[in-house]
Structure formats: structure tokens, C-alpha cells
Amino acid sequence: EIVLTQSPATLSLSPGERATLSCRASQSVSNYVAWYQHKPGQAPRLLIYDASNRATGIPGRFSGSGSGTDFTLTISGLEPEDAAVYYCQQRSNWFTFGGGTKVEIQ
Amino acid sequence: QMQLQESGPGLVKPSETLSLTCTVSGDSISSSTRYYWGWIRQTPGKGLEWIGSVYYSGSTFYNPSLRSRVIMSVHTSGNRFSLKLSSVSAADTALYFCARHEILGGRLAHFDYWGQGTLVTVSS
Questions:
Q1: Which residue of chain A has the CA closest to B3?
Q2: How far A46 CA lies from chain B's nearest CA (Å)?
Q3: What is the sign, positive or negative, of the torsion defined by CA atoms of A88, A2, A10, A84?
Q4: Which three-class secondary structure string do you get for A32-81?
Q5: Distance between CA A15 and CA A81 in Å, rounded?
Q6: Which residue(s) pair with A103 in the sheet?
Q7: Which of A28, B6, B50, B76 is the one with CA 20 to 30 A from A68?
Q8: Is the CB of residue B37 less than 8 Å away from at least one CB of chain A?
């Protein structure tokens, strides 16, 4: 099973700052990584697929990069509504998810 | 507008079968050749775990760790799909999500729309 490790566990930032979230795979997953945003009581929302492709309707401040084992989700210019837990997911070998990074907006 | 809604009992007894249904609106399961329909669960201990995905034709892919206990099926007349998980234990207590599972380049990829989830507790 491919294990995805996300860091940091929690990120506390102010509005307008840049958030950098990391996802590391236990073995190469090519570019087969997606990122999701999840707020309590809501449906998870697809942000990025295949490492760097923004999903339909996702604002330009969300961007993804990486390949192989190291991936990054960047949120440029944090908005208060970006407070959520963010998960990465790989599709190289079945489907597994990372443990999540909680983004707090101060 | 694409929406998915999970439904089913919130309490299941140990050793019994958990049964959930996902009702889809905004897309037709029977004509969605670009998508499978999946189930994912979330527990405090294991986080998010993919359970399996089913195609409109009935073709399925299951998580190898759960395969022996899982049956998924599609009900095109009601635009629904379902999950049955047998021989449940406390470890199956989780928030269960249904989601649309996109096919890219001939392979299953990401989950582009999700339901809000339904909490299932396994307890006597």
C-alpha cells in the first residue's frame, strides 16, 4: 500500500498569507495526486487533480505541483473561507489518502 | 448541479450487514460512461479509506483489504448505487461518503463530487 504523509499537521496563518502544504508518498506515484478541501459537515471538494490541474470552478489562488514522491498544494493569498482540512490522494496503486493538514486562519 | 446524498441506518449491530444507498442528482448513472461511483469512509484512527467503486454496468473494483466483505451495486431506475459491508465490527464505525469517481486515460482517477457523508456506528 502506498502511504501518503502530509505535513504540517496544522498550519496557522493570517489572511493574505501564502500556505504551503506538503504530501510525500512512500514510493513514486508519477503525477497521480489529487488534493481535496474538507470543511466540517460539508462534502469534500476536489481542488487539484494529477498534481497540477485545477478542478472546475476552483479559484486561481489554489495551485499544485510535484511529481514522483513529493507534492505541494499552495494557497496564495489566504481567504477566511479557506479554513479547512486538506487531503492528498494518490491513484498510482489503488487509492489512498494522506492524513490531512488543518489550515487555520488567524 | 451535481449532488450525491447518502442514506441508511445510523446504527448497526456487530456481525450484521451495513447497508447504505447513495442517490445521485444532476447526472445519470446509466449514461455516465466516464465515471464510476465510489464509497469512501473516514475514521479517527485510519483517516480516509477508499472502499470500492462501481460502474453503471455493474463492474466493480474493491479495496483488497475489504474485498471479502463488500458488495456494491447500481440501481439505474432510481439513479442510485449501494454499499453492503458484511460482518461488521466496531472498527467499521465511520463517516461514510459516496462520490463520483472519474476515469482518466482509461484508469480510475480522482473523486470529483462527494456527498456530505453519513455516520454509521457499530454497536450492540
A1: A43
A2: 6
A3: positive
A4: CEEEEEECCCCCCEEEEECCCEECCCCCCCEEEEEECCEEEEEECCCCHH
A5: 10
A6: A11, A84
A7: B50
A8: no
Could you read off the pLDDT of A16-74 as tens digits, one per residue?
999 999 999 999 999 999 999 999 999 999 999 999 999 999 999 999 999 999 999 99
Q: Cα(A100)–Cα(B6) distance, rounded to whole angstroms?
A: 23
Question: DSSP string spanning chain B?
Answer: --EEEEES-SEE-TTS-EEEEEEEESS-GGG-TTEEEEEEEEETTTEEEEEEEE-TTS-EEE-TTTGGGEEEEEEGGGTEEEEEE-S--GGG-EEEEEEEEEEETTEEEEEEEE---EEEEE--
- Grid coordinates representing B8? 441508511
DSSP class of A82: G
Q: Which three cell numbers stand for residue B17?
A: 450487514
Dihedral sign for Cα B117, B51, B32, B22, please: negative
